[in-house]
Amino acid sequence: MAKAANEKQAASIGNQTGGRVFLFLFTDDLDRDYALYQQRGVRFVRPIKEEPYGRVAVFEDLYGNQWDLLQPNEKNSWGEISANG
């Protein structure tokens, strides 16, 4: 990440992706981390959902960027997730 160099760049903070997820944080225990993040005030924009590749919840960082908090299925690896998701 880099600091915004001008007003146009500053206006784009939190909207670099047009409101779509582009960052991924993997976990081995989604329920644990989801509860911990909520306790610490993290704002989830989508609750935990079952997907073919695993379980995922979407949260926003301090700048409005959306992240997937993702626990892959045991049968999936990162390569399979990126190719299919």
Description:
- This protein has 85 residues and is of the alpha+beta class.
- It has one domain (19-84): 2,3-Dihydroxybiphenyl 1,2-Dioxygenase, domain 1 (Roll).
- Helices cover 26% and strands 32% of the residues.
- It is built from 3 helices and 4 strands.
- A 4-stranded mixed sheet has the order 1-4-3-2, covered by helices on one side.
- Strand 2 and strand 3 form a beta hairpin.
Detail the topology: elements first, then pairings:
Blueprint: H1 7-11, E1 23-26, H2 30-39, E2 43-51, E3 54-60, E4 66-72, H3 78-84
Parallel strand pairs: 1-4
Antiparallel strand pairs: 2-3, 3-4
Question: What are the main properties of this structure?
Answer:
about 80 residues, alpha+beta, 3 helices, 4 strands, 4-stranded mixed sheet, 2,3-Dihydroxybiphenyl 1,2-Dioxygenase, domain 1, about 25% helix
**Bulk shape:** elongated
What's the number of extended β-strand segments?
4
Q: Roughly what percent helix?
A: 25-40%
How does the helix and strand content classify structurally?
Answer: alpha+beta
Query: CATH-wise, what's the superfamily?
Result: 2,3-Dihydroxybiphenyl 1,2-Dioxygenase, domain 1
Mean pLDDT across all residues, rounded?
86
Q: How would a textbook summarize the main sheet? A: 4 strands, mixed
Order of helices and strands: HEHEEEH
Give the number of helices: 3
